[in-house]
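Table 4 source record.
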Amino acid sequence: MTDAPKNSGNGTDESVEEKIHPYIQQLMNEHQAAMQKIVQFEVVINEIREKGVDQDKANIVNDFFQFFNNNLLVHNEREEKFLFPVLNQKILQNEGEELYREKPTAVELLQSDHVGAIQLGAVIFNLFGLAFRLPDPNSRLLTIDLATEQALELVDLLKLHIEREDNIVFPLAQKYIDEADLNKMG
Protein backbone atom coordinates (compact mmCIF):
# COMPACT_ATOMS: atom_id res chain seq x y z
CA MET A 1 0.00 0.00 0.00
CA THR A 2 1.40 3.41 -0.88
CA ASP A 3 0.56 6.81 0.41
CA ALA A 4 0.28 9.78 -1.89
CA PRO A 5 3.62 11.41 -2.56
CA LYS A 6 4.80 13.36 0.45
CA ASN A 7 6.95 16.43 0.43
CA SER A 8 10.37 15.58 1.80
CA GLY A 9 11.01 19.15 2.87
CA ASN A 10 13.69 19.71 0.24
CA GLY A 11 11.29 20.78 -2.50
CA THR A 12 10.87 17.31 -4.02
CA ASP A 13 8.06 14.82 -3.65
CA GLU A 14 8.81 11.26 -2.63
CA SER A 15 6.56 8.24 -2.67
CA VAL A 16 6.53 6.69 0.77
CA GLU A 17 5.80 2.99 1.19
CA GLU A 18 3.69 2.26 4.24
CA LYS A 19 4.52 -1.04 5.89
CA ILE A 20 1.51 -3.27 6.48
CA HIS A 21 1.21 -4.19 10.14
CA PRO A 22 1.82 -7.93 10.77
CA TYR A 23 -1.69 -8.41 12.21
CA ILE A 24 -3.30 -6.88 9.12
CA GLN A 25 -0.94 -8.86 6.89
CA GLN A 26 -1.96 -12.07 8.68
CA LEU A 27 -5.63 -11.33 7.99
CA MET A 28 -4.83 -10.61 4.34
CA ASN A 29 -2.85 -13.85 4.04
CA GLU A 30 -5.83 -15.73 5.47
CA HIS A 31 -7.95 -14.06 2.79
CA GLN A 32 -5.61 -15.37 0.08
CA ALA A 33 -5.96 -18.92 1.41
CA ALA A 34 -9.73 -18.47 1.63
CA MET A 35 -9.91 -17.19 -1.95
CA GLN A 36 -8.27 -20.40 -3.18
CA LYS A 37 -10.94 -22.46 -1.42
CA ILE A 38 -13.72 -20.13 -2.58
CA VAL A 39 -12.62 -20.37 -6.22
CA GLN A 40 -12.33 -24.16 -5.98
CA PHE A 41 -15.83 -24.25 -4.45
CA GLU A 42 -17.18 -21.99 -7.21
CA VAL A 43 -15.72 -24.23 -9.92
CA VAL A 44 -17.24 -27.38 -8.44
CA ILE A 45 -20.61 -25.68 -7.90
CA ASN A 46 -20.69 -24.68 -11.57
CA GLU A 47 -19.73 -28.25 -12.53
CA ILE A 48 -22.57 -29.59 -10.37
CA ARG A 49 -24.99 -27.21 -12.10
CA GLU A 50 -23.79 -28.37 -15.54
CA LYS A 51 -23.12 -32.09 -15.06
CA GLY A 52 -24.67 -33.10 -11.76
CA VAL A 53 -23.07 -34.21 -8.55
CA ASP A 54 -20.82 -37.21 -7.95
CA GLN A 55 -18.81 -38.36 -4.96
CA ASP A 56 -15.70 -36.34 -5.88
CA LYS A 57 -17.72 -33.14 -6.20
CA ALA A 58 -19.58 -33.89 -2.97
CA ASN A 59 -16.21 -34.33 -1.23
CA ILE A 60 -15.02 -30.93 -2.47
CA VAL A 61 -18.25 -29.32 -1.25
CA ASN A 62 -17.80 -31.02 2.12
CA ASP A 63 -14.16 -29.89 2.24
CA PHE A 64 -15.24 -26.30 1.61
CA PHE A 65 -17.72 -26.41 4.48
CA GLN A 66 -15.07 -27.84 6.79
CA PHE A 67 -12.81 -24.94 5.78
CA PHE A 68 -15.71 -22.51 6.19
CA ASN A 69 -16.37 -23.75 9.72
CA ASN A 70 -12.79 -24.24 10.89
CA ASN A 71 -11.13 -21.27 9.20
CA LEU A 72 -13.48 -18.62 7.84
CA LEU A 73 -15.73 -18.47 10.89
CA VAL A 74 -12.71 -18.41 13.22
CA HIS A 75 -11.17 -15.62 11.11
CA ASN A 76 -14.42 -13.64 11.27
CA GLU A 77 -14.70 -14.12 15.04
CA ARG A 78 -11.18 -12.71 15.52
CA GLU A 79 -12.04 -9.68 13.39
CA GLU A 80 -15.27 -9.12 15.31
CA LYS A 81 -13.64 -9.54 18.72
CA PHE A 82 -10.43 -7.57 18.22
CA LEU A 83 -10.33 -5.41 15.09
CA PHE A 84 -13.89 -4.29 14.42
CA PRO A 85 -14.76 -2.68 17.79
CA VAL A 86 -11.58 -0.61 17.86
CA LEU A 87 -11.79 0.32 14.19
CA ASN A 88 -15.45 1.28 14.36
CA GLN A 89 -14.70 3.60 17.29
CA LYS A 90 -11.74 5.13 15.42
CA ILE A 91 -13.82 5.66 12.27
CA LEU A 92 -16.48 7.49 14.26
CA GLN A 93 -13.85 9.60 16.05
CA ASN A 94 -11.94 10.51 12.89
CA GLU A 95 -14.73 10.87 10.37
CA GLY A 96 -17.45 12.20 12.67
CA GLU A 97 -20.36 10.39 14.27
CA GLU A 98 -22.84 12.68 12.51
CA LEU A 99 -21.77 11.17 9.18
CA TYR A 100 -22.93 7.73 10.35
CA ARG A 101 -26.25 8.55 12.01
CA GLU A 102 -28.17 7.64 8.86
CA LYS A 103 -25.85 5.05 7.30
CA PRO A 104 -23.68 2.19 8.55
CA THR A 105 -19.92 2.39 8.91
CA ALA A 106 -17.69 0.12 6.84
CA VAL A 107 -17.27 -2.08 9.92
CA GLU A 108 -21.03 -2.42 10.36
CA LEU A 109 -21.36 -3.45 6.70
CA LEU A 110 -18.71 -6.12 7.17
CA GLN A 111 -20.40 -7.42 10.30
CA SER A 112 -23.57 -7.74 8.25
CA ASP A 113 -21.60 -9.69 5.63
CA HIS A 114 -20.39 -12.06 8.35
CA VAL A 115 -23.96 -12.76 9.46
CA GLY A 116 -25.12 -13.18 5.87
CA ALA A 117 -22.32 -15.66 5.13
CA ILE A 118 -23.21 -17.73 8.19
CA GLN A 119 -26.87 -17.78 7.20
CA LEU A 120 -26.17 -18.70 3.57
CA GLY A 121 -23.64 -21.32 4.62
CA ALA A 122 -26.16 -22.97 6.92
CA VAL A 123 -28.86 -22.97 4.23
CA ILE A 124 -26.54 -24.42 1.58
CA PHE A 125 -25.10 -27.09 3.86
CA ASN A 126 -28.58 -28.19 4.91
CA LEU A 127 -29.92 -28.15 1.34
CA PHE A 128 -27.11 -30.40 0.14
CA GLY A 129 -27.66 -32.69 3.12
CA LEU A 130 -31.36 -32.86 2.38
CA ALA A 131 -30.86 -33.44 -1.34
CA PHE A 132 -28.88 -36.63 -0.77
CA ARG A 133 -31.61 -37.98 1.48
CA LEU A 134 -34.53 -37.36 -0.86
CA PRO A 135 -35.75 -40.53 -2.55
CA ASP A 136 -37.47 -38.72 -5.43
CA PRO A 137 -34.95 -37.83 -8.20
CA ASN A 138 -36.88 -34.72 -9.29
CA SER A 139 -37.03 -33.39 -5.74
CA ARG A 140 -33.33 -34.14 -5.34
CA LEU A 141 -32.47 -32.21 -8.52
CA LEU A 142 -34.59 -29.22 -7.51
CA THR A 143 -32.97 -29.15 -4.08
CA ILE A 144 -29.47 -29.40 -5.56
CA ASP A 145 -30.35 -26.59 -7.99
CA LEU A 146 -31.46 -24.39 -5.10
CA ALA A 147 -28.34 -25.31 -3.10
CA THR A 148 -26.03 -24.43 -5.99
CA GLU A 149 -27.87 -21.16 -6.63
CA GLN A 150 -27.40 -20.18 -2.99
CA ALA A 151 -23.78 -21.39 -3.10
CA LEU A 152 -23.00 -19.01 -5.95
CA GLU A 153 -24.54 -16.18 -3.92
CA LEU A 154 -22.24 -17.14 -1.03
CA VAL A 155 -19.24 -17.14 -3.37
CA ASP A 156 -20.12 -13.63 -4.58
CA LEU A 157 -20.65 -12.40 -1.01
CA LEU A 158 -17.33 -13.81 0.20
CA LYS A 159 -15.37 -12.41 -2.76
CA LEU A 160 -16.89 -8.96 -2.31
CA HIS A 161 -16.36 -9.10 1.44
CA ILE A 162 -12.67 -9.96 1.08
CA GLU A 163 -12.27 -7.20 -1.51
CA ARG A 164 -13.86 -4.67 0.87
CA GLU A 165 -11.70 -5.71 3.79
CA ASP A 166 -8.41 -5.84 1.90
CA ASN A 167 -8.90 -2.59 -0.03
CA ILE A 168 -11.07 -0.41 2.21
CA VAL A 169 -11.25 -1.56 5.81
CA PHE A 170 -7.71 -2.79 6.39
CA PRO A 171 -6.22 0.45 5.01
CA LEU A 172 -8.55 2.34 7.39
CA ALA A 173 -7.25 0.19 10.23
CA GLN A 174 -3.68 1.03 9.23
CA LYS A 175 -4.60 4.71 9.10
CA TYR A 176 -6.63 5.04 12.31
CA ILE A 177 -5.37 2.40 14.75
CA ASP A 178 -1.98 2.98 16.32
CA GLU A 179 0.67 0.29 16.24
CA ALA A 180 0.41 -0.52 19.95
CA ASP A 181 -3.30 -1.32 19.62
CA LEU A 182 -2.69 -3.40 16.49
CA ASN A 183 0.05 -5.28 18.34
CA LYS A 184 -2.46 -6.21 21.06
CA MET A 185 -4.75 -7.71 18.41
CA GLY A 186 -2.14 -9.97 16.85
